[in-house]
Amino acid sequence: MLQSEQIYSIFKTKWGFFGLGADEKGLLKTCLPVETKETAKTYLLVGMSEKAKEVKSIYPQLTKAIIDYYNGVYVKFDMLNVPLNWEKLSDFSIRVLKACKGIEIGQTVSYGQLANMAKHPGAARAVGSVMAANRWPLIIGCHRIIRSDGVIGNFSFCGSETKKKMLEHERQIIYAKSGIKYSA
Q1: 3-class secondary structure, 26
Q2: Cα 8–18–38 angle (5° rounding)?
Q3: Pair 15, 61 in one domain
Q4: Rounded CA gap, 95 and 16, in Å?
Q5: Cα 94 from chain centroid?
Q6: 76 phi and psi, to 5 degrees?
Q7: Residue numbers of the domain that contains 109
């Protein structure tokens, strides 16, 4: 069986270098902003083919939306119709990730609430495992999933401080959109 050609693109945002990896079936993964392009490449290429080729741009409208997001613009990633490559994921994982994808900027839900949204009540722990393995952070906002007691909880990419920073950033975006002055 031939392996499909994989490509990747790394670009600068206000928060650092962001990465996208894809093949002909869709977006394979994302890498949240890190300090250097080389670090982004290292994170992004984990699990991808060693023959993956760097290209200037993958999904230009998505790249622009990501840059806009980190510049404080309200973005609805689910409206971009960028195909995601769901291969190698269980039906349960796909259901949970699709439910999570519909959570708007500035909203948070608990792991249990997300389990209910995915039609799997009582599966909060399993939902947590799916969020920890999310291949598309930001595009599928796993950072918006918190513990039922309101505590932010863990974040597999760069730790809970990054999760907290992203949620705070989204609060600022919501306030700016509403015209209300924000104070933390």
Answers
A1: strand
A2: 75
A3: yes
A4: 31
A5: 14
A6: -110, 90
A7: 91-178
List of residues 6+ apart from 135 with CB closer than 8 A: 28, 29, 30
Does 173 share its domain with 119? yes
pLDDT of residue 180: 65
Confidence band for 184, pLDDT divided at 50, 70 and 90: low
SS3 8: strand
Tokens of 140: 């599928």
Q: What are the distances in angstroms from CA 108 to CA 10, 14, 18, 52, 104?
A: 28, 23, 23, 35, 8
Tell me the per-residue pLDDT of 92-109, one tens digit each, with 9 for 90 and over: 999 999 999 999 999 999
Percent of the chain with pLDDT over 70: 95
Q: Tell me how many degrees the CA angle 102-76-54 measures, rounded to the nearest 5.
A: 105
Question: What's the CATH number where 53 sits?
Answer: 3.30.160.70
CB 141 within 8 Å of CB 178: no
> Number of structural domains, the chain?
2
Q: How far apart are CA 30 and CA 13, in angstroms?
A: 14
Considering Cα of 176, then 102, then 149, then 153, what sign does the dihedral take? negative
Element (H, E) at 18: strand 16-23
**9 C-beta neighbours (distance < 10 Å), count:** 20
Residue pLDDT, tens place only, 105-153: 999 999 999 999 999 999 999 999 999 999 999 999 999 999 999 888 7
